[in-house]
Design goal:
This protein has 206 residues and is mostly helical. It has 8 helices and 2 strands, in the order βαβααααααα. It is globular.
């Protein structure tokens, strides 16, 4: 079979964490025409719309291909993160794991009775807190080193109630803000837009 040149290929993948990112990077490096990472729920909804009955790897691939043909004009092409963005995401996610570990240790302190155990737990908490502070300093250094990330950080922190840690989380998990033309698109991407379902008299007060 004759294979198309990479520049003539458009690809679509379900967004499945680091597995899809690794494949996406490889495809991008080969210079394909366009690559789209899509929320799996969107693919599933499309399959329900088409009355999908079969479930297999081959059927899934065909469904995603049909989805791409039908929805390509409404999709935003994927682009790889910069080195700074990848470092930021990795560090911020690690701070979250450290924060959870500190919370677990504090809970153990509340249940501990023996002074030796309490002393050991306190040492571990202090060590984790020191590590956490050092990593957050590194995160802030990365933000300051990039004009794009720094501007996004300033924009996010201008929102009332958003502080340093919340901004770090948003910078780590949200794609480039310039990919969204308005706030509603960003909210929809994050899955926090409310949906209104009314049919006949259902959902109405009696």
């Amino acid at each position: 079979a004759k294979l198309a040149k990479p520049a003539a290929i458009s690809a679509c993948l379900e967004q499945t964490g680091h597995y899809s990112i690794a494949i996406s990077k490889a495809l991008h490096q080969h210079g394909i025409h366009a690559l789209f990472l899509v929320n799996p729920r969107r693919i599933k909804a499309f399959g329900n719309q088409k009355l999908r009955r079969n479930k297999s790897d081959t059927a899934d691939a065909r469904l995603i291909a049909r989805f791409l043909v039908a929805e390509q004009n409404d999709l935003t092409p994927w682009t790889p993160k910069t080195t700074e963005n990848e470092q930021l995401t990795d560090l911020v996610r690690y701070t979250e794991s450290i924060t959870r570990e500190i919370a677990k240790l504090k809970t153990k302190c509340e249940a501990a009775i023996d002074p030796i155990v309490l002393k050991s737990l306190s040492r571990r908490i202090k060590s984790e807190q020191k590590e956490l502070a050092a990593i957050r300093l590194r995160i802030n250094a990365i933000i300051k080193s990039s004009d794009t990330i720094r501007k996004s950080d300033q924009l996010i922190r201008s929102i009332p109630g958003i502080g340093e840690i919340s901004s770090h989380l948003m910078l780590a998990e949200i794609p480039d803000l310039t990919h969204f033309s308005n706030a509603r698109q960003l909210a929809a991407w994050a899955g926090v837009t409310p949906c209104h379902f009314v049919s006949g008299t259902s959902g109405r007060p009696t």
